[in-house]
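Report of the visiting student (M.T.), summer placement. My assignment was to run the structure pipeline on a short list of targets and document each run. The first record concerns N-acetylmuramic acid 6-phosphate etherase.
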Amino acid sequence: MTPSRSVRVVSPTERRNPRTLGIDRADPLDVLRLLNAEDALVPAAVAEVLPRLAVVVETTTERLRAGGRLHYFGAGTSGRTAVVDAAELGPTFSLPPGTVVAHHAGGPAAMVTAVEGSEDSEELGAADAADVGPGDVAVGVAASGRTPYVAGALAAARAAGAFTALVSANPGAPLAHLADVHIAVDTGPEAIAGSTRLKAASAHKLVLNGLSTAVMVALGRTYSNLMVDVSASNAKLRGRLVTILMEATGLGEERCAHALAGADGELKTALVCLLAPCAPEEGRRRLAAARGRVADALEAQPI
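After the run finished, the structure tokens were exported:
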């Protein structure tokens, strides 16, 4: 498909919204109220697709545990949303680089400035998906459900044997046939017709945040609701390690700091040592046997 070709998108997001017909005559506060009322519809729309999203979570967890990767593919706002989600997983969960990869049509430059024609190229999508393997998961993100870049990526990933999913705001998405699971979040017409950076983008952020967070929980990168795999890459996060230990154990700052130092700064090891209790070496062995899940490591017998 060439960039000069005109395409009419058929999607609920393109319809005029009867609730915002007078938005151009409203004062700023009323404009914000109209936008806020539309935004309030998003969580319920996301709730409708949770069973399908759970299937993607389960498959992604299995494949990442076996050494596979999660790939996001998107253009425009959809691609930027995917990039942001993937970027946060390293510092939040100490995820090794390359485990979750976001591919944005047009590359890094397109994060701030649109790269003309990139989203209309199936070939570019296929090229970006060239390293997707049969043990991977490929998630295409496209509000319209028809973006050629995403089409090329999903087709290539599917041909490589990867598990594929499509996240869209269009129940009738033309690319649904390329996905093992289609997560269509029907947020309806936008406050400004066709401006999918509004409700559709908000819904996609919730879906991707839900996907990645649920996978991280399943992989044991939390203990209860605490970030026990957080990467201490800055002063704020380094200070958070002791705070997390205090929250998880109910013990004082000095004892938690001492345990963390004794575990060479390994938060999970220090946590197991304090709660088991046990020596750091045994804590590491327990965690290894429990595949990194602190709760399971605490139930394990001493090795």
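The longest strand covers residues 163-168. Residues 199-218 form the longest helix (20 residues). I thank the supervising group for their guidance throughout the placement.
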